[in-house]
Amino acid sequence: QVQLVESGGDLVQPGGSLRLSCAASGFTLDYYYIGWFRQAPGKEREGVACISRSGSITGYADSVKGRFTISRDNAKNTVYLQMNSLKPEDTAVYYCARQSNHYAYIDLDRTKYDYWGQGTQVTVSS
User: Is 114 exposed, middle or buried (0-12, 13-18, 19+ CB in 10 A)?
Assistant: First the structure.
């Protein structure tokens, strides 16, 4: 069955860095766009970054542009989110998700994603 498993979340100080991983199984990763989302307590889940099938095209939310980088290694069935210059407002549970093949373009609308991981906690605090 389709599975997405996030890892790499941690407690980090402001200005620090983390790299999240999303391990995919049960489907051919190369065929799908993948997105990263996050949800802070009391807030709606928001899109953070999206990557095309080959990794040649990426898109980011304005709030993370220039600080976060999404990448993928299809041979390892893994998608990454490198997060630099972290701020307290980046604190959230981070999820990776598979975009439905009905779409296949850069989009951070969570309704276009059909499978989700369980999430990994990122806390930015001194």
Answer: middle
How many CB atoms are located within 10 Å of the residue 30 CB?
A: 12
Q: pLDDT for 79-95, tens place per residue?
A: 999 999 999 999 999 99
- Count Cα neighbours of 86 within 13 Å in the Cβ-side half-sphere: 23
Number of helices followed by number of strands (H, E) in the chain: 0, 11
**pLDDT digit string (tens) for 4-63?**
999 999 999 999 999 999 999 999 999 999 999 999 999 999 999 999 999 999 999 999
Task: Kindly state the helix (H) or strand (E) to which residue 22 belongs, with its residue range.
Answer: strand 18-25
- N- to C-terminal Cα separation, the chain: 40
